[in-house]
Amino acid sequence: MKKVRNLMIALAVLVVLGVIYILAKQGMFEEKEKTEESVAVTNLNADNIQEISFKLDDETVKFTKQENTWKLDSDANFPVDEDKLQTVLDAVADLEAVRELPDAEDEAEYGLDSPSNTITVKDNDGKEITLNIGAAATTGDLYLNSSVKEGTVYTVSSSFESQFDKKVYDFAQGTDFPDILTDNIEKITVENAGNTFVFYQEEREAEEDTDETTSDTDSENKETADETDSDAADTEMVWVLQKNSEAPVDADSTKVGELKSQIAGLTYVDYINYDCADMSQYGLSEPSTKITVNYTDSEGGEEETAVLYLGNTDDDGNFYSYVEGNTEVHTVSSSVGSQFQSITVDTYKAAEEGTEENTTE
């Protein structure tokens, strides 16, 4: 009887311990979920934001929505790219923290006594929120505080700060270089250092196949094809290069193809000025290089012309540029500009027949 009672007590103890273990484990799991759950810092409706200010290149800029259109306060005519600004608005409106550190009294400990950036937003109800970005945490995240919950410091992803690692012209709507397909380029004229280089195409009779080992069957097929296409001109298009008034020479088709690809794939590096009144500050009142491209529009099939001017270079070696008929100034990469400025006949003329063979002998 005593043994049965002891056994029952032992079983009861095991049951109690099991319950305690399960509850403890569940509590630990819930606590883990709670610590990993992100914390809302702002929780705003981005569409209701009417004003936003932040630092760009150590200068504070402010955008204000006026009649559903965003304006740069310092320049009402600035062409705001609202899609790019919306990306920032969304990031600020729905900012979540990785961790929340309550009762963080010493701002200097988190680099918040001298924040690297201060973001202020105001909604259409007049509610204003200020966010300060401080130092980097050991985890790689950033310390941040908010006017919504004073005395609390958060850590947020470093990607939040990257929203403001820009220039004001990164928020400007600009015009891209014309969309030109490589195969639609018909003529390229480059004026540089007092010389004019013109690449154009000539229609010529195609070279005949001189292979004497053609079989009888191939000959019969060729005769049949010749009869079928008797009215078709047996010609080909050849790229030619002419410098000034000198005699034109055949151009290296591969190198011309590279030049055409540079034009077709041309993108700007930086947006500099949306309406330049003084081109001389960029060396564009007297451009160093003028590039004229004659091409066929891929949509309408009409003949079009694009003229690109290159001026001085910036600190990174990129060339200031503008397109004829447009007052926007952009930069193009140093590699693109240098390629057009270094054109010579010797570089682009086709190799004479036998030259390569003689070289290898």
Short recap of the structure:
It contains eight helices and 19 strands.
Number of helices: 8
Give the neighbour order of strands across the main sheet.
14-13-12-11-16-17-18-19-15
Number of E-type strands: 19
Uncertain parts: 23-35, 357-361
- Terminal Cα separation, in Å? 112 Å
In terms of DSSP E residues, the strand content is 25-35%
CATH topology of the largest domain, what is it called? Answer: Immunoglobulin-like
Using the CA coordinates, give the radius of gyration: 35 Å
| Overall spatial form | elongated
CATH class of the largest domain: Mainly Beta
- Biggest sheet features: 9 strands, antiparallel
Name the helicity range: 25-40%
- The topology string of helices and strands comes to HEEEEHEEEEEEHEEHEEHEEEEEHHH
CATH architecture descriptor of the largest domain? Sandwich
Query: Would you tell me the overall average pLDDT?
Result: 86
Quaternary assembly: single chain
Class per helix and strand makeup: alpha+beta
Question: How many domains?
Answer: 2
Explain what this protein looks like in three dimensions.
With 361 residues, this protein is an alpha+beta fold. It has 2 domains: 39-171, no CATH class; 182-207 and 234-352, Immunoglobulin-like (Sandwich). The protein contains 8 helices and 19 strands. The chain has a 9-stranded antiparallel β-sheet with strand order 14-13-12-11-16-17-18-19-15, with helices on one face. A hairpin with a 2-residue loop joins strand 2 (49-56) and strand 3 (59-66). The relative contact order is 0.10.
